[in-house]
Amino acid sequence: MDALEEVQKIWETISTGESIIDAAFDLNLQRKLLDIFHVGSYFFYVVNVRRAQLEYMSPEIKTILGYDTHTGLADIVSLIHPDDVPCFLNFEEAVKRFFGQISGIQLFQYKVQYDLRLKKADGHYTRVLHQFVIIQHDADDIKTFAVDTDITHLKPTGTPQLSFIGLAGVPSYFNVDIDAGFSPVKSFFTKRERQVLQALAAGMSSQEISETLSISKYTVDVHRKNMLKKTDAKSTYEVLQKAFNKGWV
Fold first, then answer.
1. pTM surpassing 0.85?
2. Does 227 lie in the same domain as 145?
């Protein structure tokens, strides 16, 4: 199966009904935020979905996968583990259907995320959390800003999962059953707990999280205790493992 050819067939059927650009999107700002809140090493890129091309690739791909910035979209898709290709195509079909139900500014109020395995230059596979947001949508171009994060240490095995994370207060859809439609699901963690968890995964201390989120260290510690209790875990690392395995974040 040619995964790129198959996913292009899906992308070619995306609606072209409106033209809208996320004027608030700033690549440099996004990079700063990624450096603060992230669960592992990552690389990011801009995809022109309509043209099936990469318009930008960050140099971090060399560190994560061992390839250079000239790596194209066809190359990235070809790296997907054969067993994960059906999930990838099903997820992209579900993404098309999901965004086909919304319009206007809401197109920019969702982050799509799913995990899959990519083949590194040394022949080994690493599991990445693939996340993206739409930054432009018109008849000629649909562009997304995507981030692939190495989560092998958090989810070494397991079935890929798809979620639509609502931003700016819109409902989220976690661990989507692609055959059962889209039903809003309350996250296992609160929004603040997810922020604290992501910051902990990025190596930040409770004091650093306190200063970054402008909340007291006591409040951070309360969130940490609540997450341990909710997941029946003995450590933050165990909380993170359970969260990614079960699609709670």
1. no
2. no
